[in-house]
Fold this protein.
Amino acid sequence: MKISSYGKERHFFAAAPSFVWQFLFFFVPLLFVLILSFLDNSAVNPVFTIQNYINVLSYPQVKAIFTSLFIAFLNVLLCLLFAYPVAYCLAFKVKKMQNILLFFLTLPLWVNFLVQVYAWFFILEHNGLLNNFLLNIGVISQPLHLINNMFAIILVMFHVYLPFMVMPIYNVLEKLDPNLIEAASDLGADWKRTLRTVTIPLSMSGIQLGSFLVFVMSFGEFIVPSLLGGEKVLFVGPLISQYFLNSSSVSPGAAFTVMSSLSLIVTLGLMLIVSSKYQGKQ
């Protein structure tokens, strides 16, 4: 009994630093932002007020939240549409080349995120690689406008976040018993029905995890809209940075951050409910 008790205490003390780190650098800053959102920093003596929340409920701020939610949701759909076939092939179809293909899939993650975005900038710009290539082969007569628009933002976000959708789905499919798929085929189900009623429901945990990862990171994306969007459309990430870079708007920025976080949590909850209901119906 003493050894067992010591083992439990040892595991607790081994995990304690991670809990302390999370408390100091996650929960404490969140609490600080929440308190700051209710302070009037324009007054001589700070007072609690809800005016910050009223001020950020204007059309540009609300539009920025909904735009970020829409782009994040669209990116999830695009990543899922392309990631599931890739993960399925990696798990079931290319056993001999599985390791090398996984290496190439994770290779972009070794490159600094900012470097990847700048690489796309040089590809999509007016005199960039893509426009020059299309001009040289005669497909177009003048350069296309491929940058500083929503197309560039969606394309680059899809590229950089696709591996975060593929890997969770692959991890679940790779552990899936192939006999279940064979049993569905033996019972007369074609590949479409097997995919809809067996494979997808059993891999729903990977779909949920990948969707949440891509959605959260896309929602708060800062670099891609700033470098490739031309600041023509407001997004949550750049707008929060503008608030906090201006010392006179720190409290409204904190209020906007809280509102953005709440909208993100509510949307993730709805996504979880919908995906769970789909899984339960199968």
Remarks:
- The chain has one domain: 58-281.
- The chain has a mean pLDDT of 87.
- DSSP finds 13 helices and no strands in the chain.
